[in-house]
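Take one protein record:
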Amino acid sequence: MTDSCPACVRRGIPPAATRRRGDTVVHGYRCPVCGHQWATARHLPAYIPTRRSAA
C-alpha cells in the first residue's frame, strides 16, 4: 500500500518498514524527496469485505 507525503504531497511512496501488531498493521514511510518520516496504522478487519446475503 502506498501513501502520499504529508509535507510535500508527493504521491505513491511505498512503506520503508512494516510491522504487524495483532489485527493492526503499521507502515513506516520516508519521503525520498523531502525526507519527511511518518507512520500509518490500519485496523485490518476494516479492510475485509463483508458478505451480503442474497434475500
User: Anything to note?
Assistant: The first strand starts at residue 17 and ends at 21. The CA atoms of residues 48 and 54 lie 19 Å apart. The chain is about 0% helix and 35% strand. The chain has one domain: 3-46.
